[in-house]
Every structure is written in structure tokens, then in C-alpha cells.
Design a protein that fits this description.
The protein is α/β, with parallel strands linked by helices. Helix content is about 40%, strand content about 25%. It has 2 domains: about 100 residues, no CATH class; about 120 residues, 60s Ribosomal Protein L30, Chain: A. It contains 8 helices and 10 strands. The protein has a 4-stranded mixed sheet with strand order 4-2-5-10. It has a 4-stranded mixed sheet with strand order 6-9-7-8. It has a two-stranded parallel sheet with strand order 1-3. Helix 2 runs antiparallel to helix 3. It starts with a strand and ends with a strand.
Length: about 280
């Protein structure tokens, strides 16, 4: 049994959230530059240039890519041969979030009660934590600072099995197109299919962690990703919602077995500031 101190978890989470908020991933950066060259709309091309410049300044000066520094979401793959010692695992994660948002002067955006008492917790906690037990003696921590301009445009629908491929495609495209300029396009579209209602939603969030341009290993789902991306970009919404071909940078689908009577589909939209980072301990 390998022992890992809670302080190591805390420090890792802190460092990852600072990294995610300051440095856009190379996959996203390269895709933005590629689309800037391909974009035919002069206004759309100008918006993409500004986004790229913004990302470069954030990295150089170590300041937040976006003023909405998001709600902290953490995916953990916890090896079953690992024992967390000298502290509480969940509290270590939340303390890491607190320290990152204080040290990095990142905006704290979490309220204590969603309906009756929307009082700011003043430290951006609690984080949303997903833990999966896996074989081995390692811990993989992946974090995302999820902004709500895009999160608010996300959606979930319990389709009927008879709706099939076209039903899935239409729902995803409609969700992205109806979002319009609100999620700060160009967007990345995470899609979760199958499982139950909550499983589809978690899959759609997890799909956003996949590097832009990396398709699902299942060729049928990879083809579906390409078809949906093409349809979204036909909408003409464009960068910043000001017109153009680059409404979305990628569509990522994750799937899971489901019940014979159901076809749950969740769409989680992320803006171009797709902030995530991960580390294996």
C-alpha cells in the first residue's frame, strides 16, 4: 500500500488550477491559430487574432485568461493501492482550490446556496469532485476551471432509442446553435451519450478534457463528431458570435452502455478558454 500525504494532493490541486487559469493548452492554441488562417470572415479572423493575443499575454504575465475563472471541477483517478494520510482527501482538494484562487488573484464565483442564500463563499469552494477507483498505486488529478457563460448554455435530454443517430445529431447541433454568441465562441462541445441522466452529464464534462483534434477511438463515434462539428460550423455564428465559419473548434463524444428503454444525451459547452490541467502522482 502506497501512502500519499494529503498535503501533496493539496499542493497538486493548487498548482494545477494556477496553471489552468494562466496557460491555455497547446492543443487549443494551435487550433485557434489554424482556424485563424482558414477563417474567411475578416471580422471573425480579427476576433481569433485577439483571442490568441489574449492567451499569449495571460501566459507571459501569469494573469487569468478570462475574468470568469470558473467553478472548480476535479476528476480524480485514485489507485486502489493508495492510502491518503495526514489529512482528509476532499478537504485537501478544497484547500488547494482556496490557495490557488487566493495566490493567483483569481475571481471567486461560488455561492453557498443556489436558491435561497446566494452568498459568496469567498474562496471558490466547494469544488465539484468526481472520484473513480482504478487499479494501481498512482493518483491522476485533472482539473478544469469551468466558466458559466458556456456552462449555462449546456443541456441534457432523454431521447428515445428510436430517435437514433439523427436524434442525437440534431439535439447536439440545436443546443450549440441556439447558444449563439452566449458561450463566447469558438466553442468546444462535450457530448455524453448513454448510462443514466447523471452519467451522461458527467461524460459530457469529461469529454472536454480530451485534446482538441483527438477523435474518439471508436470510428463510428469519431465520424459522428466530425459530422456534428461540420453542421455547427455551417451556422455562421462565428468567433465572438460576429459571423464566420469558426463557431466550434471541436466536438468530443464519450459514451457508456445504457438501458434498453433509454438514450440519454448531455451536451456540455466550453468556451475557447478551455482551461484544464492534469498530473499523475
Amino acid at each position: 500500500m502506497r501512502e500519499i500525504k494529503a498535503e501533496v494532493i493539496k499542493n497538486t490541486v493548487r498548482d494545477l488550477f494556477l496553471e489552468a487559469n494562466y496557460f491555455i493548452g497547446k492543443d487549443v492554441y494551435d487550433k485557434l491559430k489554424e482556424q485563424c488562417e482558414l477563417e474567411e470572415s475578416p471580422v471573425g479572423k480579427s476576433v481569433l487574432r485577439q483571442i490568441i493575443k489574449n492567451d499569449e499575454i495571460a501566459a507571459q504575465e501569469k494573469i487569468a485568461i478570462c475574468q470568469d475563472t470558473g467553478m472548480a471541477v476535479v476528476f480524480v483517478e485514485l489507485g486502489q493501492e493508495v492510502r491518503i494520510v495526514d489529512g482528509d482527501f476532499n478537504e485537501a482538494i478544497n484547500q488547494g482550490v482556496r490557495e490557488a484562487y487566493a495566490e493567483g488573484y483569481l475571481r471567486k464565483s461560488v455561492v453557498s446556496d443556489p436558491v435561497f442564500d446566494r452568498t459568496n463563499t469567498k474562496d471558490n469552494t466547494p469544488a465539484v469532485i468526481h472520484v473513480k477507483i482504478v487499479p494501481g498505486d498512482k493518483v491522476k488529478i485533472a482539473v478544469t476551471a469551468k466558466g458559466f457563460g458556456s456552462e449555462n448554455m449546456s443541456s441534457l435530454k432523454m431521447l428515445k432509442p428510436a430517435d437514433g443517430i439523427e436524434g442525437v445529431k440534431n439535439f447536439v447541433v440545436e443546443t450549440a446553435v441556439n447558444a449563439g454568441p452566449n458561450p463566447c465562441p469558438p466553442i468546444i462541445v462535450g457530448v455524453g451519450i448513454g448510462g443514466t441522466m447523471e452519467m451522461a452529464a458527467i461524460l459530457s464534462k469529461k469529454a472536454l478534457f480530451r485534446p482538441v483534434g483527438e477523435h474518439n477511438s471508436n470510428l463510428r463515434y469519431a465520424q459522428l463528431e466530425k459530422e456534428i462539428l461540420q453542421e455547427i460550423n455551417k451556422s455562421g455564428i462565428g468567433p465572438g458570435g460576429l459571423g464566420g465559419r469558426t463557431t466550434a473548434l471541436a466536438v468530443h463524444i464519450e459514451y457508456f452502455p445504457t438501458h434498453i428503454a433509454g438514450l440519454p444525451v448531455a451536451v456540455n459547452i466550453c468556451c475557447h478558454a478551455s482551461r484544464h490541467a492534469e498530473k499523475l502522482i
